[in-house]
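Hi everyone, sorry if this is the wrong subforum. Our group has a chain we'd like a structural model of before ordering constructs, and none of us has done structure prediction before. Sequence below.
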Amino acid sequence: MSVVALSTAAPPPILELDKLEISFPLEGGRILRAVAGVDLTLARGETLALVGESGCGKTTLGRAVVGLYPPTAGSIRFHGQSGGTTARRAIQMIFQDPYGSLNPRLPIGEVIAEPLKIHRIGSRAERRERARELIQQVGLPVDALNRYPHQFSGGQRQRIAIARALAPEPEIIVADEPLSALDVSIQSQILNLMAALKESRGLAYLFISHDLAAVHHIADRVAVMYLGRIVELGRRDALFARPSHPYTQALIQAIPRIGQGKRRRGRAIAGDVPSPLAPPPGCAFHPRCPKAQEICRVERPVLASPAGRPDHAAACHFAD
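Answer:
Right subforum, don't worry. Here is the predicted structure as tokens:
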């Protein structure tokens, strides 16, 4: 295996994470290391899915990208530059909870226009007109602008959250579990809306999810995260067809499948995610891995290309 720094084809990446670390100090001098040395890139018009179980650091990484958490170490670069007002305007976020992410005291027109007001974009009349355009683009009627969040369903609120994220004309949208609080019947509608907006606007998505079925529908590339680190990275079809890391294999096996006239449950992953306060030595997945050997317990594998797969990378001693 050879160490690899995966990059997308031309055009060059608009977002680069270089050895990104996010840590939080706790009582007693303890340190919670939520993101541990992540390298990722995102190209214009690309959807990069970030997957893994709860507690693996996905949301922390996404919030760092939009500037809610400062890096403890490493860097986040947008068009080669670190941070700044331009990046804050050009990178917007859709949050997991469509109920808690909208201000209940504001009518929807003001909710959508709020990013424009914050970034001092346009006059009040221009912001109102922009809200009218966006509410229609996400499939809701114009009269919705005069109503309040509690008057809408979960799926409608997520459409409103998407409209708000689009308001300042971002280049990147970080979507943090945007489907998990929605009914299954609504999830496909939101996925299709996001795909259509990506196509029409050239958007790039960092799509954070534990739902691999949704990821298979929308992603161009997939990064698998475990206990703060990327353990596998590759093109969607190649990763689903031939996963290299045992953790990725387990996640894919856990996807429910249609079979024998009913929906079959996927195979559950053994054990629980370890605490980031006391990560296991060596490969962090080794306590749950059916293929673990002695080297896995003492030496942490690097993210590298398995033989014959130069556009793929896995952090596993036995990925070949």
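For your construct planning: The longest helix spans residues 184-201. The chain has a mean pLDDT of 91.
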